[in-house]
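User: We ran a pulldown and think these components assemble together. Before we commit to crystallization trials, I'd like a predicted model of the whole complex to look at. Sequences follow.
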Amino acid sequence: MEPFKNFIDVLTQPTLMLTLAMFTFPFFFPMNDWFDKWNRRLRLNLLWTKAGLIAVIIGLTLFFVVGVQDAEFRLIMLKPDNVPIVGLIFLVYFFMWVSMKQASDNDKLLSTGEKPNEYHDPDEKVLVWPDLVYVEFISLILCMCLLLVWSIGLDAPLEEPANPAATPNPSKAPWYFLGLQEMLVYFDPWLAGVVFPTIIIFGLMAIPYLDKNPEGSGYYQFKNRRLAISIYMFGWIILWVLLIIIGTFLRGPNWNFFGPFEYWDIHKLEPLTNINLSEIIYIKLFNTGLPSNILVREIFGFIVVFGYFLVFPPLLAKTVLKRIYLQLGNFGYGVFVFLLLCMLSLPIKMYLRWIFNLKYLIAIPEYFFNI
Amino acid sequence: MERQERHYNILSLNKLFGISSIFFLVLLIWTFADDYDRTWKDYQREFRRMDTELTAELRTAEQARVAETADYKEASDKLAKATAALESQAEDLKVLEEQRKKIDAEYYKVQQEQAFAKSLYDVAKYEYEAAVSHYDGPAEKQKREMEVDEAKKTVSALERQIEVYSRKLTTIDIGSMTIGNRMANAVRDLPVIDFMNPYLKIDQIIIPDITDDMNIVQMPKVDRCTTCHLGIDKPGFEDAPQPYTTHPNLDLFLASASSHPMEDFGCTSCHAGRGRGTDFVTAAHTPSSHEQEEEWVEKYHWHEMHHWETPMYPTQYTEAGCLKCHSSEPFIPGADDLNIGLTLFEKASCNGCHLVERYEGKLVQRAGPNLSHLASKTTREWAYRWIDAPRDFRQNTWMPHFFDAVEWDDEEDQARADQEIHAIVDYLFDKSAGFDLEAMPRLGNAERGEYLFNNLGCEGCHKLELELEQTPYTLASLRQEHGPNLTGLGSKTTQEWLFNWLKDPKKYHPETRMPDLRLSDVEAADLASYLHSFSNDPFMASSVPSVDEGVQLDIAFQFLIKTNSDKVAKETLTSMDLAEMLDYNGEKLLQHYGCTGCHLIPGFENAKRIGVALDGEGSKPLNKLDFGYTSIPHTKIDWFTHKVKDPRVFDLNKVTGPYDRLKMPDFGFTDGEVEKIVTVIMALNNDDGREKPVSASRSFVEEGQWIIKDNNCMGCHLIEDRGGDIVVNFTAPEYAPPNLNTEGEKVQPHWLLDFFEKPITIRPNILVRMPSFHLGEEKWNSLIKYFQYYDGQTTPYEGDFSPRENSIAFRAGEKIHEMGACNNCHYYGTTEPLQEPQTWAPNLALTKERLRPDWVDAWMNDPQSIMPGTKMPRPYIPTEEELSTADASEVFGTDLMKLAGDEETMIRGLTDYIYAIPGKIDISAEIQAFFDENGYGFLEGEEETDDWDEEDWEEEEWQD
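Assistant: Here's a predicted model for the assembly, 1331 residues in total across the polymer chains.
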């Protein structure tokens, strides 16, 4: 069992895990024909079949059953705060499966020229009573049952009296904010805590206005909505759910990373000397001191950031996103590509940090402005 | 598929609904069951059964006892007789009764008339009054009735005692209940309706003025411990199993008459733990041993309440709860372990490095000797060996091991340690100031020195044993080790130094607590030669490595680099020669290891403490304690235990520079001692306690107790019924230092001050000597106030007592005095007593200066109760009968006859007489002259040891 645990501990190193997740992602949600070919060749499409569901659920269950035998992982897993996150992993996969199963079924039907399954639903659809209310009522009862069992089984996770002078270590946000807390590692608080959440909310609100593709209205399908679904799933699964899982299971004392089977050693240290872009350029490259003028000092950071947001949109419009540019027009495309670039800035910043120990591209602590 | 109106099959929905509803109902019942199933309810049911049994037993016993009592039998007989008498007179009574009825009727008639005719009121009133005043028929009946009432009262009073138990039984024993109560009993604990008046309920004590610190608010303590610990305040459950057991010390705790009543203090204010918890685990019980922990895990699924910062103290540390209220007291009555722990803490001088408020201004901070004139006392070689391993020289020394305290020392560290000691010794001897040693007038006689050592009272503070027995410390044994064990002095110092030290300890070490015994040159010489005759050769045979310049260079570099750049450090180093380097290193090391915490060292007169302040240490959050890479269980008690036992254990496997490591030295405490010291550390917490009322008398008493503790008065004297440990060394208590109980009531304060400042001889026949402590007027006054306030004698200035000479009482006293033959034992001024010296007693001419007359009265009345074992008899006081015999005037004289029966006045007369005894008051010189001539042979029993020259005893003063 130890080799397995060690393997998992290595695999869950954040650099490795995120890289793996990001680079295997398009094989699961292929956004073009090439990936689609490999998706089929690797039989990854089996994931959305009943057998796939059973296999994944059994696999996950086995992982947690094995995990619970380990003293360290048991502590994390069975903490009343974390039990719902274990449930979340199953639920996220299950609902993803529900929709992707229907999507792949419909894709098959559509490819043979038939109508999607939903086409055969009764015209009058369902009655409020008993079809809607009764079912809702039964669900309500079952939910109550679940809550009762849960509250009997797990005590409220009370901790020591709050002490303003002593911060718990690790100090974790509620689970739904763990993604944001993870972003705080890489971005200045005003960005990670204020700007990005706002952009996320407005971005989600903008989706219906940006995704004008009529295909798949009223039913699930993937083939004609590849890009839309992939981009959304990337943001949702990789940049949100995965970060919550990392925050819950893999972040330990001093916000260090720990594998699930690793002992949370409070003494563990990681080299944490991060430097700003200006320092990389002026000190490491030019071997001179930092200029005293802020603008001169940060000029390279401004160039990079503005370059990122000014160079990429026209470049993409001419190349991979040509079709979307034509569809959405100037304004729509502008909004879309801005949101997309914002989203991608998180993994980009992560890699910059891991590879170059980069702290900020633009660092003007004098005015609390850091990017 | 045919389209139907309903999308879902209603029948299967119905089934699903039915199943889920049943499931929900089951869960609801489970919820209730889970909510109502509490372990404390089982405990309460079980305790109810036990309480019923015990009460029934007590009732049976009480019934049997009452039935046996003479009172009950007599009263029952009386009742029977009176009832019979009443019945026998029934006929007469009937007639009387009828008469009474008739008169009553008339009375009512009159009353009615009065109501109808206001004008006739006066008449009717007159008739009524007349009727009543003539109504004396039933007097006999009244008398009988009164007798019956009386008897009934006695019987019912006795039966009420039984009733108390019966009534209790009807409320708790289902068998004895009324049907209504039985029904109520069955229903009262049912779910939902149990809000009204359940039998099973959480029992809590709320203490508004003792709070739990919730960081942001202070929450009043709510202790629910009694929910399960039901027998805790009820005698009778001493042998019951937990949680029903009675508290082991109800005299001091819980009972409402004790000093810590339960309703005022609760439980967790002393024991800590989580008062609101109502099951075994959440109450934060803490096991006192590993075995108990395993038992609890098995029995109660015990685990640590990780988030509760003040878990209950394990049983052996319970007394840690005392100090938060009692911190100003040097001695906490009843807290035996804590007192030993505190004394160990003081002896090891923890306070030298770690500030503890409690000791500020109370005890001498630097408990070790003055090192300012070290060169005059000992040699470099001895000092080297001593610093290296003090316990090799003197097994019970409080000087800790600094240099072999760590097990994982490698060779390099060992070499460094050797050189560090060299540097320290070098510094101390180089800076040692000159000290003029007076030459000894003559060589001493060790044999006589031994006699003096055994008899002057040295053993009140010192031991002289090469191999000490390894017995656990008690307060008494700690008092006997107040000063160092005097073994091996021959290897350590010179006779000359010892002579000078004994003559005037404060000259060498102004802060010393060693008092001045006012030794003559000859005595000092004898003692010095006796003490010098002990040596420790194995210790002196250990090797002393030579100075290694390379290592010294490294040590100096390590210190220089702390505050200098690499370049400056190296430059400074090259400019130093070896001697300079040794001094530099020595100075830095003395500072580094905090030697100044216990020793006065030249150059460090104002050194600060180097350790962390310990007030509040017991409340330190666990995450502030660094466990390092050790596998010690993460609890505060474990951390402190290891810190005290093995102070540098937390450096294990750490990569650090030699002077960044932990430096607390190893005191060689045994496990038992560690436990008691940890109790003290846990007791130094920030928990909220109850402010003790600060009264002047209280602070006077405490002030004095500190002085007594600091100067170890109890090593020789019995005070507050404690101490006097030296007394067992004497053949009889009267040759030992006196018992100081009732001292405040006993002596006149201004006399006591004179005595403290310049002791004189009081008890002629004792050799043990009251030393001169030179505490200064202020401390002496505190001590006098202590004696006074402790005895409740609070008048500071009292007039002189003038005996009423020539009064009847005075003459009666004179007669009693004459009959008592006081002059057999007592001095009268310089007049020697008639009997042999071993019975000699204080000078009666001193009484008027020394004693308080009220005390003398009490003393005469019953000497044994004040000083048990005293040879002073109660004076013979003739009784009233004796004074009324025919020849009384001849035997007792007329004055006593006039006072026949008035013992108080007779004793006061005796006191009057004693206060009038004339003569020299301070007869120290005369007494001394006598014993110089005749010796103290009787102290040794029959054996005559007094065989040395008289001239040896010149210049001496024998004191009490």
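The mean pLDDT of chain A is 89. That may be worth checking against your pulldown data before setting up trials.

User: Thanks, that helps.
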